[in-house]
Amino acid sequence: MSGDHVLVCDGVVRRFGGVVALKNVSVAVRRGEIFGLVGPNGSGKTTLVNAVTGFYPPQEGRITLDGTQINGLKPFRIASMGVARTFQNVALFHGMSVLDNILMGRHIFMKPNPLASLLYPWWAQKEEVAHRRHVEEVIDLLQLAPARDEHVDVIPLGLQKRVELARALCAEPRLLVLDEPMAGMNQEEKEYMVRFILDAQEALDLTVLIIEHHMDVVTALCDRVLVLNNGQEIAQGPAREAIADPRVVEAYIGK
Ligand code: ADP
User: pTM of the predicted model, to two decimals?
Assistant: First the structure.
């Protein structure tokens, strides 16, 4: 497929014992788009994300990132190739501040090189300034400055999810994978999150793969979607059209 696609999944199959969680699923995410994974509970959305991020590699099919095959690689390799992820249940570093959690997103760039730092201190300093600049840009974008010194354990869930998003953005991902970023949020928090994701996408030129089941959020955020049911594609295309497909309506009502 052409260079316009950041992620291509071709004929992906994933089984868990007798359960076929993904049955020949194909999808191609274009550079710069927000692509939604939609479907009732148990339809295979998380399994597809786990296949892409290397947590549960597919048994059949091929997954490429900018043309390079990634299925079969370990999750940390895939992450270091530019796939950043957030989790449905927030996964932050407890006991640490908002700022320290966000800084963890830069660790993939930080290859300790004490000799170079000694010989070329100006180089190390320049690197440090670049890291800081990017972190501050993300903090501004997500309006996290007032909370930067707070402990992540004591802030509300909506804010915790924003910190997790900030950490993922600090990795400057080629592909940002968001697993239900609105889970557990109230209406106001959801609306804020939609705004932050759209602002970040515009400012940082992001390509996003997002699992989302709130249809208002899907239509507000997603350019295109893949709708899964029982591990199979039942619709794919522009968000509004795909979720209005009678097979999609039936799949949701049938649950
Ligand atoms: P969704 O994210 O759409 O709710 P999942 O991808 O979590 O759906 O699940 C799809 C199917 O795969 C379900 O039947 C689920 O029970 C099964 N499944 C997912 N992960 C595992 C696992 N680690 N072990 C066994 N079965 C799994």
Answer: 0.90
